[in-house]
Amino acid sequence: MKNETMEAIRKVALSVRTLTMDAVQKANSGHPGLPMGCAELGAVLFGEVLRHNPATPDWVNRDRFVLSAGHGSMLLYSLLHLSGYDLSLEELKNFRQLGSKTPGHPEHGVTVGVETTTGPLGQGLANAVGMAIAETILADRFNTKDHTIIDHYTYALAGDGCMMEGVTSEAASLAGHLGLGKLIVFYDSNKITIDGSTDITFTEDVTRRYQAYGWQTLSGSAYDIGEIVGLIEQAKAETQRPTLIVLTSVIAKGSPHLAGSHKAHGAPLGEEEVALTKKALGVPETAMFYIDPQAKDYFGQKQIVWAEQQKQWQQEYTEWRQANPELYKLWQRFFAEDEPADLKLPDYKVGDAIATRSSGHEILNATAQGMPYLIGGSADLAGSNKTDLKGLGEYQKTNHSGRNICFGVREHGMGAVTNGLALHGGLRVFCATFLVFSDYMRPPIRLAALMKLPVIYIFTHDSIFVGEDGPTHQPVEQLAALRIIPDLLVFRPADAQEHVELWKLVCGYKDGPIAMALSRQNLAVFEKQDPDWKKQIKRGAYIVKDCAGTPDLILIASGSEVGLALQVAAQLEDKKIRVVSMPCRELFLQQPAARQNELLPPEVTKAVIEAGVTFGWQDIIKGKGMVFGIDRFGESGPGKSVAEYLGLKVTKIAADLKQIT
Ligand SMILES: Cc1ncc(C[n+]2csc(CCOP(=O)(O)OP(=O)(O)O)c2C)c(N)n1
Question: Is the pLDDT of residue 258 over 70?
Fold first, then answer.
């Protein structure tokens, strides 16, 4: 590297330090330690390594950079600003303020150039694994002998905290197995976390652990710019394994009294120390939000280089497009993520008896045919979840065209990797496990909802009807736990016909994640009295069976309990009963009051039946009626016996209802 470039990078690093110190001090909150400790690495990456173009941040073939240690957000914000992304100095001055583009932790969708939302430690690294997988899939689909249009690296920066979190172990193990050669992770090894030195908590040999996962491991100093560049070249030269680059660093480097101290992790340095640090760095003490002129010039010139780089790619892309019109049509489908009009979904008849996990299998396979960009898999339960895409191969190190991703028994990692797949762009993704284990993947589900990623979760074995496996495998609180996540929709189809209609909604839905809760046991396909039910179900609920005039009682149920509700209604022949299926409570509650009141008139007594905790159903019955649920853990035994033992018995429910109507 030329001396001149080296000098410019040092000035960028200096500017990152000053911007960070001032932003955190002004906000009187934030984390100066990591950005100051990793300033040189960040400068090298954004200046010399990343193949990106701040002028077109959504360029599909850009290198991805994920700041897994999201608390160090000022590192990212400083570099985005300095390198020319649409993030003004004003925004940096508004760090952590309401409505700013510089929230406390990086948020995808809020700030241009932020590839994923990070802050919950470990998630970012696992997202990066997903992005790296996506790159290989798209490269496999679209690159030709003559043209390479997808060919980028995925970089992540992780700290001690990320390395301690289990989710990175799961994702890194998978990345090693899959041989993701274009994944490069930097480990900011400063041996400091919030409570002090890692000597008190974390003394394992991370390098050897990653070697055991099948990674190449390299190490060096976070302050030797030439060495960092060399390490990245070595990382790129290894095409068969992901690389971990362990960089020895000092938290808050540059601060005379707080460098190396955990006190600099998550608190402003203090006015006095900021002044002393500026002095030590050779920056005018009075200058606020100082940016070195050389840093500015350096990035100014880079714009031309980057624009040229992208132009070359554009040229390649245009030639590829002209030479491969059919492939280009496919590309358009991948990147428009169209809702295929020609999906040939299965047809189910009243009287069919099929578990919704099994209708799910047929529906998913039919969808995979019509949506070539649909990929996904299960956490070692593909057979039970029935999510295998028949004849479409396994995605493996040696087969990037496989559409079944075998996540292994790694639910948390699966959730986070799936977010990365979705974030990359070009693919529609699903992942699957038992509903009860959705708990293991709650953090990435929450982040998918926060980022509004259209991930599809397929959660089978959705109630105590699982039976013999007992309470460990019988979900009772999981439906409620998922329903309370904002911006996540939970669908629980009552039969295969409902399943098909709900799935059509899933296919066209781009606004966030959807969780499908599917049954293990067969469910009879029932008659739907409302001729308009296919439209109404998309509003969350519809009338399955009605009575003449105002009902004495409305039975509301979801999933397998709709069948039960119909049997209960049959036992209450002398009453006027309406039965409502509510496969999605969230959608129903989004309806205008008039629609809600039309379906569930406020003056009518209601009873809800659902094989799960009763939490949340009061919002539906509004104090007028009863909820038949299961507010305790289940029992081991045949499903039907367990259900009856826990009170889900037609005669018992009918008897209870006779008391209140
Ligand atoms: C899942 C999760 N748990 C806890 C935290 C709170 N937290 C934020 S940073 C941090 C310590 C991280 O240490 P390290 O990665 O070494 O960062 P550094 O001190 O080097 O900035 C903790 C516990 C979090 N953000 N996410």
Answer: yes
